[in-house]
Amino acid sequence: MEQTPHTVYSTTNNLKVQFTQIKNNMPYNFLEFMANSSSGTEDIYYCNSSYTTGSFTSSANCGLVWSQSASVGYNHTHTQYSKHMLVPFSITNNQIGNIGVSNQSYFVFKNSGSWNYYYLANDTAAMQTTANVGNSWTNFAGTLDSHVHQFDSKTQLCTQINSTDYYLNSNLSAVRCDNEDISRFAPSPPLVYSPSGYSNKIPILINYSNSSVFSPTDTRLVYYQIDLLDNNSNFLAGITNNSLSLNYTMNSSTIPDDYYQVRVTAFDNNTFSSIGSSQIFALDKTSPNCSMLTFTGLEQFSDVFLVSTVSDNLMLEYDNLSVNTDDYFNLLNSSSITLQQPYHINYVAGTVLTATARVSDLAGNSYTCTQAYTVQSTNSGGTNTTESPVSITFGVCPTSASIGLFIFVMVLAFILIVIGFIGAFVIGFFGSLMLFLATFSIFACNMWIGVIMWAVSCLFMLGFILRWIKA
C-alpha cells in the first residue's frame, strides 16, 4: 500500500471497515487510516462481530471510540502515497468501553461533512457504505488504507538482516528479538461518553471511562484534566482538575450557545498523558423565535398562505401550526426558515381564526407564537398578499349584486320556458353559459357561490325538460 498510488473516495456517507484477527487482551492499540477533510469531524465507532445492520450509534454491539477533527491532520507519513491519522484505544477486561472485543471486528466512520478516503481499487469485501446510520449497507469495491497495531509489555520486535554482494551471494543473519520498551508508555486514553448531541441542560454532565496505566516504572494514575474546546478542537478554557473522578458536572450557564467538544487528559505519576475527546456537541439554552404575518383582509371561503418565520441559534427540529381545529406539521432542518402553509378559509365573515405556531429546536427548547385573523366578506384591500398562487386570468368572480340579478333572470327564464315564450336554441345557449359560470365559480372563486349557481342552472334545465314534454 505504501508504494501504490491511491484512489480517493469523497463522500458524506458513513463507512464500515472489517478487520480480522483482533486480539481482546492487548492493552495498547492504535487504528491508523488515511482520510482528510477541509472541515467537520468524524466519529469512529467500534463494533464487534455480533453487529450486522441497524443503527450503530445505539447498537448494544457498538461503541464510540474516538472523535477525529479535520483540523488535526495526519499523525505521520510513510510515503507520498500513504499518510495516516492515529486513533488510540484501550482494551480492558476484553472490552473496548463496554463492548466485547471479537476476532472479527469493524470500525465505523460517521461523518460530519464531506470526507476524503484513500483506498486501493481491489475488492476485498471488507468495506461498506451507508447513507444513514446503518439500516442498510452497500459493498464498496476497494480497500481503505488502514490497519491496527496491538501490543503489550510482552510484545517483541524481531529483526533479521539479509546481505547480498555484487555476484548475488547472500547471507541471512540470525533473528534478533527485543522486548518493547514500554517504560515511557502513557496511560490508555479515556473514552468520553458525554456530552453529545444537542443539549439545553444547565449544568452539563461529563462522563468518561477509567484509564489504565501499564508502565512498569509507575502504575499510578494521578488525575484527569477536563478542558473545553471549540468544534475545531481549539482550546477555549480549562474546566477543572477532576482528581480521579470519572464524572463532572459543568456549569454551562455562562457558556454561549455554540458547538463544542470536551477533552479529558489522563496523567500518570511520570506526567505522561493520553487524551480522550467527546463528540462535538451543541449547547443551546435559548428558545427559538417565531412570528406570523398579520393579515387584515382575509376573504371568506378564499385560499391563502399563512406565513410564519422561525429561527434558532443553532438548529430547528419541527414546526406545528394549528388554525382553530386544523393542524399542520413540518419537519425542519435549518436555523432559519419562512414557512408558507396553504389554507382554505372555510368560514363566513366575522369568524375569528386563531393561528398558533409551536416551534422546537433539536435541544428541546420550544416557543409558541399566536396570531388572530378576522374573516371578511370580501378582500377589503388589506395585506392579504398571499392568496392562492393558482392564476385564473379569465372571467370575473360574481359579486352579491350580480348573483341576485343572475337568480332573477334565471327564474324569469324558467317561467318563460314553461309558458313556451323561449325557443330551444335560446335554452341551449343559456344552459351552456350557466353551467360554465357555475363550474368557474366553484373552482376559481367561491364554492358556495358555485353551488347556488349550479342549483339555479338545474332549475333552468328542469324548465327545458318541462318545455320539451309540453311540446
Task: Describe the fold and architecture.
This protein starts with 6 loop residues before the first strand and ends with a helix. The protein has helices at residues 400-418, 424-445, 447-470; strands at 7-11, 14-19, 28-33, 35-36, 41-47, 62-69, 76-77, 83-90, 95-96, 99-100, 105-112, 115-120, 127-130, 138-139, 143-144, 146-151, 156-159, 162-164, 170-172, 176-179, 192-194, 197-199, 204-208, 221-230, 235-241, 247-250, 258-268, 273-277, 281-283, 289-292, 303-311, 316-323, 326-331, 336-344, 352-361, 366-374. A hairpin with a 2-residue loop joins strand 32 (316-323) and strand 33. It has 471 residues and is mainly β. Helix 1 (400-418) runs parallel beside helix 3 (447-470) and helix 2 runs antiparallel to helix 3 (447-470). The strands form 10 sheets. Strands 6-5-11-2-13-14 form a 6-stranded antiparallel beta sheet, with no helix packed on it. Strands 22, 24, 25, 27, 28 and 29 form a 6-stranded mixed beta sheet that branches. The protein contains 3 helices and 36 strands. It has 4 domains: 7-152, Sandwich (Jelly Rolls); 155-285, Sandwich (Immunoglobulin-like); 289-374, Immunoglobulin-like; 402-470, no CATH class.
